[in-house]
Design goal:
The chain contains seven helices and seven strands, in the order E-H-E-H-E-H-E-H-E-H-E-H-H-E. It has helices at 11-22, 34-44, 59-62, 89-110, 136-155, 181-185, 195-207; strands at 2-6, 26-31, 47-50, 71-74, 119-123, 160-166, 215-218.
Length: 225
């Protein structure tokens, strides 16, 4: 299989790239930083490519060396703290461009390399269901991912397109050392989702041929309480 993981140089994206590389698949992981892309690719045993999703005009050229795409994972994120009361237009435009325009341009650039059995997974997040102070842009963009999944599943058919919306992933590098007892207390399974569980959910969405146009929450039931 040929797998492209956009945002594959850190966190969950890196775990996804490592999983498929260990399985013997042909993996391309991307980072906005060329040195990091090269270093992570060497560590994982795959190929690297570098581009910034917030500069979508550069994406096509950066991905021109990809010959075939069986699975595409769009997992890159940018953490933005923004509110209507204290609004940074620059940060908001960057995040909206990165996730909605940049993600779509990756699909546009790689579509000629796909085939009817190809599949795509797009990362959103549960900030759309559980907003917090400063999540104005994040919550809005993650809601946009839901719409993007729906329209691409119709437009690209029979290529399958699904979304995954994690809550707080307790063992991820960003959250691992933060106080999360209050979040755990509101999660019905009594703990937070792990990176392995998010990765396994991505693999399921990529491989199950009957799952299409789904926006899957993987949060241990966090939004229920």
């Amino acid at each position: 299989m040929s797998v492209v993981v956009v945002g594959g140089s850190a966190g969950i994206g890196l775990e996804i790239a490592r999983y498929f590389a260990r399985a013997g698949d042909d993996v391309v992981l991307t980072s906005r930083d060329a040195g990091r892309a090269e270093g992570c690719a060497k560590e994982v045993g795959c190929r690297g490519a570098a581009f910034d999703l917030a500069r979508p005009d550069e994406i096509g050229a950066a991905l021109s060396g990809v010959e075939r795409v069986d699975h595409l994972v769009l997992s890159a994120i940018d953490r933005d703290h923004n509110s209507a009361a204290d609004y940074s237009i620059e940060r908001a435009v960057r995040l909206v461009t990165l996730k909605l325009v940049g993600y779509t341009e990756v699909v546009h650039a790689l579509l000629p390399k796909m085939h009817p059995d190809s599949s795509i997974v797009i990362f959103g997040g549960q900030a759309m269901q559980r907003p917090y102070p400063g999540s104005t842009t994040v919550s809005t963009v993650n809601g946009g991912v839901v719409g993007l999944v729906h329209t691409l599943a119709c437009e690209l058919a029979p290529i399958r397109v699904n979304g995954i919306h994690p809550g707080i992933v307790g063992d991820s590098p960003y959250w691992a050392d933060k106080p999360l007892d209050a979040v755990v207390a509101r999660t019905p399974i009594g703990r937070l989702a792990t990176m392995d569980e998010i990765r396994d959910a991505v693999v399921f969405l990529l491989r199950n041929g009957a799952v299409n146009g789904v926006n899957l929450a993987v949060d241990g039931g966090w939004t229920l309480k």
